[in-house]
Amino acid sequence: MAEGLDNEEKNANLNADKDVRRWGIDKMEKNSLPEIQPGTFSFLKLMQQLRQEVGAVEAAWGALQSTRRRDAIYDYLTAVYRTVVGWRWTGRAEEYAKRALESYGLPRHGVIEPFGVVICCSIIGAELHSRTRNKWVCILQYAEQRQVKARDLASFIKRKGGINRCGEKAQCSVKFVGALRK
After folding, report:
1. Is residue 88, in this structure, part of any structural domain at all?
2. In this structure, what is the dihedral angle of CA atoms 154, 82, 101, 103, given to the nearest 10 degrees?
3. For 11-68, what is each residue's pLDDT tens digit?
C-alpha cells in the first residue's frame, strides 16, 4: 500500500514539475522557487530562458513593424501578456523583469513593472512614445486584473472599444485600484 502511495506521489510531482521544468528547476511548487544566485548554472539557464522568452516578443514586434495589418498590435500585446503572466505564475515576475533588464543592458529606474520591462526589452532600437508604452502597460494590467486569458486578450480589448478606449478604461481602473490600496 505504501508503495502505491509513493507511485501516486511521484506522478503528482512529475505533473507539477512540467510547468516549472522550462526554467530548469526541479521539484518546485508554484510560488516557492529558491533564490537563484548570480554565476550559478541555474542563474545562467534562467538568463538564457528570459532572453528566449523576450526574443519571442521581439519577433512579434518585428512582425508588427513589417505589416500594415490593423490588428497586428494585438499579436504583439498578446505575446507581452503571455510572457508576463507566465512569470507571475512562478511568483517571481519582478525578479525576472529585473533580470531581463540586466540581460539587455537597460538601466533600472524606480519601480520595475514587468509589462513595461518586456515592452522596453522587446523594442530595443525602435522609438516608442512613453505615453503609448504606458497605455499598453495599463491595458495589460487591466486585462490581468480581469483575469483575461492570453488567447482572449485581443477580443477583450476589442470588446472594450479598441486600444484607445480600453486604455482610457484601464487608466481609470488602475487609478481606482491604486486608490483602494491607500
Report:
1. yes
2. -130
3. 444 443 443 444 443 444 444 445 555 666 677 888 888 889 999 999 999 999 999 8
Range of the domain at 106: 38-181
Nearest CA-CA partner of 111 in 97, 124, 100, 132? 97
CA 156 – CA 153 distance, rounded (Å): 5
Domain-located, residue 2: no
DSSP-assigned states of every residue in the chain: -HHHHHHHHHHHHHHHHHHHHTTT--S--TT-PPP--TTSHHHHHHHHHHHHHHHHHHHHHHHHHT---TTHHHHHHHHHHHHHHHHHHHT-HHHHHHHHHHHHTPPP-SS--HHHHHHHHHTTTS---HHHHHHHHHHHHHHHHTT--GGGHHHHHHHTTHHHHHHHHHHHHHHHHHHHH-
Tens-place pLDDT, residues 109-140: 777 899 999 999 999 888 888 889 999 999 99
**Cell of residue 64, nine digits:** 508588427
Say how many domains are in the chain: 1
